[in-house]
Design brief:
single chain; about 160 residues; alpha+beta; 4-stranded mixed β-sheet; 4 strands; about 50% helix
Length: about 160
């Protein structure tokens, strides 16, 4: 009886080791060539790598350079573990794309120091910059109309065109 228990425990331990190895190998394959430039990603980020909603990522250095250059920049600050982001992203990403807004995404789970760098108090947060300065911000999960107004009035600056109609 003791011998069977030892064999069972050994087989079980071997299976656990193999399972851990397989999961780590699969994750390392997914992480290879990722848009974050990191070799070790949080599992929640790995789970979103293939999602069409989480493409167009920007790294902190690139974002800072783009803002400092004065180029108009719209950034979606989010966390893969944020339930509000999980509900908001499928709304704002297609909306931005349809309107032709090049909305960059910055993953705050992977780049935690960016919370303070950009004064982010909650996720999701969308910030629009012009001439190196923040000109508009929308924070948190909002009704669709709020995002629509943000993109039209603040990013595209077409509120006057709507008023003339």
């Amino acid at each position: 009886m003791k011998r069977n228990m030892v064999i069972f425990a050994t087989v079980l331990a071997a299976l656990v080791v193999v399972l851990v190895f397989v999961v780590q190998y699969q994750n390392s394959q997914q992480v290879e060539g990722n848009p974050y430039g990191k070799s070790n990603l949080n599992q929640a980020t790995i789970d979103q790598l293939d999602s069409p909603y989480y493409q167009n990522q920007i790294q902190p250095d690139e974002l800072q350079s783009q803002i400092e250059s004065g180029e108009e920049t719209t950034v979606y600050f989010y966390s893969p573990t944020c339930v509000h982001c999980q509900r908001t992203t499928p709304i704002v990403d297609p909306m931005a794309e349809e309107l032709g807004v090049d909305m960059k995404k910055l993953n705050l789970l992977e780049f935690q120091d960016q919370w303070q760098e950009y004064g982010i108090e909650a996720t999701p947060t969308i910030v629009h910059y012009e001439d190196g300065e923040e000109v508009a911000r929308v924070v948190g999960e909002q009704p669709v109309d709020t995002f629509d107004t943000f993109f039209h009035d603040e990013v595209l600056n077409d509120s006057s065109a709507e008023a003339e109609e």
